[in-house]
User: Fold this.
Amino acid sequence: MNYDGLLLMLPKEVKIFAGAFVIILSIGFYTGLLFVSQTSTTSPDGIVENYNGNEDDEEAMIMKFKKSEREMLTIVHTHILSMSFIFFLLGILVWLTKIPKKYKLFLTVEPFISVVLTFGGIYLLWTGVIWMKYVVMFSGFLMTATYSISAILVLYQLCFKRIERQ
Assistant:
């Protein structure tokens, strides 16, 4: 089955449907990032503080307490499940674009690795493996970058006029 460039051959109505999905998905994704920036988890120490608390810091402006095991399991569980669906659905659209397979493979597999590293890293950080804060930051950045590239790529190719298969 040849699916390379199939996105370019879809009828206008299907392209509009797929485009609306990617736009709404992106609003949800970037709203989540906005929430992360509001919780001061955009720095290595902010990540540690968000999950392990800051009760020992007498100069802290806002007191944060270490998350419970139940809270951590809920965070990890819900994020791994929801992010895997997000990247699976977006990945299907990426595989229908007209770019080299090696780029498609990277854009569709890397986010799953980053999801495990980011949320597994958050859990390990919570258990006391503090150096995981750097893994969490790097994998979170990479996950966001691959999402952004994938969404832009799909939206860009959805804007092309319909091409008939030769």
